[in-house]
Amino acid sequence: MFRRNYAAMFGLFLLVLLVLVTLIGPLVYSVDPFEIVWAPLTPPGEEATAPLGTDYLGRDILAGLIHGGVATLAVGLAAALITVVIGLTVGALAGFYLGIVDDILMRVTEFFQVLPALMFAMVLVTLFSSSLVVVAIAIGLVSWPPTARLARAEFLRIRNLEYVSAARSVGAKNTRIIWQVILPNALPPLIVSATLTIGTAILFEAGLSFLGLSDPNTYSWGYMIGSGRDNILDAWWAVTLPGGMIFVTVLAVSLIGDGLNDAFNPKLRER
Amino acid sequence: MQILSMLARRLIYAAILVFAVLILNFLLIHLAPGDPAEVIAGEMGGATEEVMASIRKAYGLDRPLHEQLGVYLGKTLQGDFGQSFFYNASVTSLILDRIGPTLLLVTTALLFAIGMGTLLGVIASRNPRGIVSNVVTVLSIVGYSAPIFWTGIMLIILLAWVFPIFPISNMRDITLEGGTFRHILDVAHHLVLPAFTLGIVFLAQYSRLTRASMLEVLGSDYVRTARAKGVPERSVFGKHALRNAILPVVTIAGLQFGSIVSGAVLVETVFNWPGLGTLAFQSILARDYPTVLGILFFSSLIVIIMNIVTDFLYRVVDPRIRTSG
Predict the structure, then answer these.
(1) What 3-state DSSP class applies to B297?
(2) Res. B112 pLDDT band, cuts 50 70 90
(3) pLDDT class for B236, splitting at 50, 70, 90?
(4) Which chain B positions have a beta carbon within 8 Å of A232's beta carbon?
C-alpha cells in the first residue's frame, strides 16, 4: 500500500535525493563552506564562483547548502532518537503498570507539556553550551511528552488483550511482556510518530539556530540561518535558501510519515 | 457548587505546577556550570565583587541547598525574579512590560487558526474529494513542514517588500499622530503578518482535524437519524455534526498552548514584535540569565492559565462533561 501512495513515494524520492546531495555532494563540490570566496552579499546568479551567492562574509552559499546537511540531519536523527527512547519508556511503564506509577509519570509528562518547549530548550542551550550534542539532548528533553502519551495509550489498549493474558498465564515476566509481547504490537503508530518526530526535531534545531543558538564550530543549515538573520532584507538568499532546504527535508519526512500512517491504518484510507 | 469544587481542584493543581516550574528554575541555576551567583548576576552585567557578595547574601548561597531553595521560592513567590544587569531593571517589571504584546499576538493567531481552520475543515468535509479538501491536505502538510521563521521571512519579502502592503516589523509606527482609534488601527495593521504567520501552522492542523472528525461524525447514527427525520442539511451540519466535531479541535488547541508560545518566540524575533520572545532573544544574546529564567517561568504561567481557560471552554462546548464533573 505504501508504494501506491504517490505523495509518500514523492517524499521518499526527496529524502533519497537530499541524502545523496548531503553524502556525495561534498566530494563533487569540495569548496570549504567556511572559506571566503567572493565579495560579501553577492546575489545568486551574478558570479560563477558562487552560483547561489555569498553570505555577509563572502562565503559560498552553495557550498554551505551541500556541506551543511550532515550536521542538521544528524542532530535531527539524534534528537528524535532521544525523544522516542524517553517517550517510549515513560509511556510504556505508565500504560503497563498503571496505578501510582502511571499517576507520577503522567504528572511529570503534564509538567513538561506546560513548559513552552522552545523556551525551555533555549534556556538549556544558553546555560550549558550550544554544541550539537547539547542541542540534540535539549530537543529530546523537551519533545518527548506526545510520544509518551501515544505509547501509554497503545499499552493501555493492548495490555488487556487476550494474547497478553495468555503470555501472563504461561508465566512470562513483566519485562518480557512489555518488550516482547506488547511493544511489537504497539509499533505501527509509534513508528509513524517517530518519523514525524524527526521532522519536528529538525524544525526545532532550525528554530534554535535562527535565534543564534547553533553550534558556531560546525557548518550546518541552522548555522547559515543564524548567521544570515541580521541581513534578511539585504541578502534574502542567505536565510531563505537553507530555510528552504529544511522545509524540503521536513516535507519529505512528513510525507513519508503520512504514507506510513495510511499503510498501517487501512480504515483511514477511505478518507 | 460543582463548578466551584472543580475550580478549586484546578487551582490547586495549577499551584503545584507553578511550584514545580520554580523548582526547575532553581535546579537550572545550580546545575549550570560555574558559580550560581554568576548565573544569577548574568555573565554580561557589570557584576562587581560587591554585587556578587550581595547576591550571595540575598540568596543565602553559603547555606545548605534546601534553605537556598526556601529563600528562592520565597523571593520568586513575591514576584522577585532578581535584577537584570543588562537592562538595569527588575526582571519582573521587564517581563510585565512585554507580556501584553505577546498575549495579543498569541490570542489573535489562535482565534484566527481555530476560526479559519474549523471553517475550512467543514467545507472540506462536505466534499471529501473536492478542491477545498485537497487544499486542506496540502496546506496542512506544508504548514507543518515549513520552519515558522522561514514562512515569516517569505511573507515579509512578498507582502512587505515586493508589495509593500504591510509594515516590515515592529508593533506600531512611532511617528504616527492622531487619536486612539488610529493607533488601534495601526497596531492591527502591524499585527496582520505576524499573527498570520503564527496562525497558519495551527490553522493547517485544525482544518485537517476538523475535516477528519466531521467525516467521522457525519457517518454516525445520530446524523443519519437527523437526516432521516428530515432535519435540514444546514442544521445537520451546524447543530448535529459541528458541535461534536469541534471537540477534538478544542482539546488539541488546549494541549498546544506551549507550542504556540514557542512559535511566538520565533515570530516575534522575525517581526521584531516587542513581546516576551524578543526579550528572550535579546537576553539570551546578552547571557542575561535572570531574565531568561524569568521568561521561562512567566511563559509557563501563561500556558497554565490558558489550560484552565480551555477546560472551561470545553465544558461550554460539551454539555456532557458539565454534569459528569
Answers:
(1) helix
(2) very high
(3) confident
(4) 153, 156
CB contact under 8 Å between B153 and A240, yes or no, is yes
Separate counts of helices (H) and strands (E) for chain A: 12, 0
- In DSSP notation, A162-187 reads HHHHHHHHTT--HHHIIIIIIHHHHH
Closest chain B residue by Cα to residue A107: B17
Report how far residue A188's alpha carbon sits from residue A192's, in angstroms, rounded to the nearest whole number: 6
A220 close to B (CB below 8 A): no
Question: Does pLDDT of B286 surpass 70?
Answer: yes
Confidence of residue A271 (pLDDT cuts 50, 70, 90): very low
Question: For residue B322, what pLDDT band results from cuts at 50, 70 and 90?
Answer: low
- pTM beyond 0.90: the answer is no
Are B279 and B159 contained in the same domain?
A: yes
> pLDDT per residue over A206-219, tens digit each?
888 888 887 878 88
- Comparing CA positions, the residue from B148, B146, B125 lying closest to residue B209 is B125
Of B141, B285, B296, the CB nearest to A254: B141
CA distance B278 to chain A (A): 10
Complex prediction ipTM: 0.84
Residues of A in contact with B265 (CB under 8 A): 116, 118-119, 122, 207, 211
- 3-class SS string, B195-251: HHHHHHHHHHHHHHHHHHHHHHHHCCHHHHHHHHCCCCHHHHHHHHHHHHHCHHHHH
CB within 8 Å: B287 and A126: yes
Looking at CA atoms only, how far is residue B224 from chain A in angstroms?
Answer: 18
More confident residue, B5 or A18: A18
Domain, as residue range, for A210: 2-268
Per DSSP, B43 falls in state: S
Give the chain B residue whose CA is nearest to the CA of A202.
B147
CB contact under 8 A, A126 and B289: yes
| Chain B residues inside the 8 Å CB shell of A197 | none
Number of domains chain B is built from: 2
| More confident: B254 or B148 | B148
- Asked, for residue B13, whether it belongs to a domain, the answer is no
Q: Which of B77, B104, B123 is the last residue of a domain?
A: B77
- CB neighbours of residue B313 within 10 Å: 13
Residues of B with CB below 8 A from A208's CB? none
B289 falls in which pLDDT band (50, 70, 90)?
Answer: confident
pLDDT range class, residue B106, cuts 50, 70, 90? very high
Q: Say which CATH number the domain at A88 has.
A: 1.10.3720.10
- Take residue B316 and report the three cell numbers written for it: 461550554
Distance from CA of B181 to the nearest CA of A (A): 31
Range of the domain at B310: 91-322
Question: Is the Cβ pair A247, B145 closer than 8 Å?
Answer: yes
